[in-house]
Q: What sequence folds into this?
């Protein structure tokens, strides 16, 4: 895992941390409570997906990943 950034979270005294990681493989298995659905996307597929707002750390992680994929 590699630290990316952090962002204040709207709950009291909370912080959201963003990390990059390598996925070793296997089936995605969301827990059904906190995460109800999960899937992988290619860079091209992201054109058809509603992304989080640009100020969010989740969007910053996605944008950074897309930029690195396109630079390959």
A:
């Amino acid at each position: 895992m590699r630290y990316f950034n952090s962002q204040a979270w709207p709950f009291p005294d909370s912080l959201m941390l963003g990390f990059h990681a390598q996925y070793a493989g296997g089936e995605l298995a969301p827990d059904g409570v906190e995460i109800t659905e999960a899937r992988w996307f290619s860079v091209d597929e992201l054109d058809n997906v509603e992304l989080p707002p640009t100020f969010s750390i989740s969007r910053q992680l996605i944008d950074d990943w897309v930029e690195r994929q396109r630079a390959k």
